[in-house]
Amino acid sequence: MSNIENLEEQLDDFSPARRYEALAALAAAARAGKHPLPAPGVAHNLHAHTFFSYNAYGYSPSRFAWLARKTGLALGGIVDFDVLDGLEEFQAARRLLDLPGCTGMETRVFVPEFAQWVINSPGEPGVAYTMGIGFPRRQIPSGAEQFMGGLRRTAEQRNRELLARVNAFTAPVAVDYDKDLLPLTPAGNATERHICLAYARKAQRQFPDAAALKKFWVEKLGPEAEVVDFPEGGKLQNLIRAKTMKKGGVGYVQPGPGSFPSLADFNRFVLACDALPTLCWLDGTSEGEQKIEELLRVAMGTGCVALTVIPDRNYKPGVQDQKLKNLYHVVDLAQKLHLPVTVGTEMNSPGNKFVDSFETAELKPLVPVFLRGAHIAYAHAALQREAGKGYLSAWAQHNYPAAAERNAFFEQVGKALMPSREPALAALPQDATPAQVLDAAGGK
Fold first, then answer.
1. What backbone phi and psi angles, to 5 degrees, belong to 221?
2. Are the beta carbons of 166 and 245 closer than 8 angstroms?
3. 37 φ, ψ to 5°?
4. Would you give per-residue pLDDT tens digits along the chain (444 residues)?
5. In degrees, to the nearest 5, what angle opens at C-alpha 432 toward C-alphas 431 and 434?
6. Residues in Cβ contact with 304 at an 8 Å cutoff, skipping those fewer than 6 apart
7. Where are the domains of the chain?
8. Cis peptide before 136 (omega within 30 of 0)
9. I need a surface site. Which of 120, 197, 227, 306 has the fewest CB within 10 A?
10. Superfamily of domain 37-140+273-441
C-alpha cells in the first residue's frame, strides 16, 4: 500500500486528530505536485452520508472531501441523519482542499395532509424523508439544538426497542446496544444500517465456521440467505434489514403521527438554523408521489424552498421507462415552481456510487439544472455564514423578492465563488449591493 493510500485510510479513523493529520499531509502532497489534483468538471454529489450517520464505505467527512477533490467533482456536500456532527470537519476539509460545497441534515417526518398515502418511505403512509441543506454553521439556536437532540434521543429509543425485538428472533445471536453497536459509530449516532452490520459481525463471532454461519442465517432469514455475501457483505446486510427491520419484519412497528416530528415542525427547525428546507423525492411511483405537485405545494406552505433527488434510483441506462419519465416530470415541475434541485448518491447502502453518471444520455440533459441547484445551495451556505446574506435572508428577499431572480443571482455567486474566497464575504457592508457581493465572490 502506498503512502497516499495509507493516508487515505487514516482519513476514516475515529480520532479527529488523526483524520486532520492525514488530510493535511494529503493536501500538502497535492500542493507540492506529488499528487496533482484535477480541474473540477461538472460531476458533483451534494448528498453523501458520512460515518456520522452511516456510510457504506466508512467514509468520514474528510475522506469524502478528499475523494471529491481527487476525482475532480465540481462541488461536494454531506448529509447525515439527525445530526450536524460532521459540519465543522467538512467545512475545514473543504477550505483546505478548495472544494465548494455545503452540509445538510436528513430525517423522517409526518405529513398530516398526506396521512392516507405512502410518500417516499415504503409501506408507511404519511411518513416522508426530508432534509435541510446549506447549514451555515454547527452552532445553532438553543431551541433548535433541543429539537435536534430530541430527534437523536427518539432515534436511539427506537433502535433500542428494535434490538429487543430482533434479538428475540435471532437468538442465540444477540446485539448489545452499548457493547456491539456504539463502537461502530464515531459519535454514538447509530442507524438501522449500523444495526445490520452489528448483527452480521456478532453472528460471525458466534459461528466462526462458515458452514455453521450460513446455516444460522438461512434458518433465520430464509432461502434467500443461501446466496448472500457472507460474512458481512452488502447483500446479507440488506437481507437482515428487509427481514427484521422493514415492514413485515419481526422488529418492525408501524409508525404513526407521533412517531416522527411533523414536516412543519422540522422545517421550522431548519429555518431557525438558517438552512434551506428541502423535500426529498424517491421515484414518483408511490401514491403520494404521484400527487407530487400537491405534495410540493404542501411542503412549500411549511417553508420548503428546494427539492433533492437521488438520480441513480430513477433510470437504467438505455431504458426509457416510467421512472425516467417521472424524473423528468418532477424536475420540470420544480423549475416551474422555482425550486432549486440538488442531487447525490447517498452512499449509505453497499453498492451506491460515489457520484452519479452525468454523462449518460438519461442524465446529461438535466446536468445544468442539477448544477444550478448545487451552486445555489453552496452560495447560500457561504453567504449566510460569512455575511448573513443567505438565500432566505432579509437582504436577499429585499434585493430579489421574486424566486426566479434570486435563483439566478445565487447561481451566479455559487459559480464564481471558491472556498479560498469565502472569508472575503465577511468584509461586505451590511447594505452591500448585489454587485458588491458578486465582486467579493470573485465574479464580474
1. -105, -10
2. yes
3. -105, 140
4. 689 999 999 999 999 999 999 999 999 999 999 889 999 999 999 999 999 999 999 999 999 999 999 999 999 999 999 999 999 999 999 999 999 999 999 999 999 999 999 999 999 999 999 999 999 999 999 999 999 999 999 999 999 999 999 999 999 999 999 999 999 999 999 999 999 999 999 999 999 999 999 999 999 999 999 999 999 999 999 999 999 999 999 999 999 888 999 999 999 999 999 999 999 999 999 999 999 999 999 999 999 999 999 999 999 999 999 999 999 999 999 999 999 999 999 999 988 999 999 999 999 999 999 999 999 999 999 999 999 999 999 999 999 999 999 999 999 999 999 999 999 999 999 999 999 999 999 986
5. 130
6. 130, 267, 277, 278, 279, 296, 339
7. 37-140+273-441, 149-244
8. no
9. 227
10. Metal-dependent hydrolases (3.20.20.140)
Core vs surface per residue 132-161: b (16+ CB within 10 A) or e: bbbbbbeebeeebeebbeebbeebbeebee
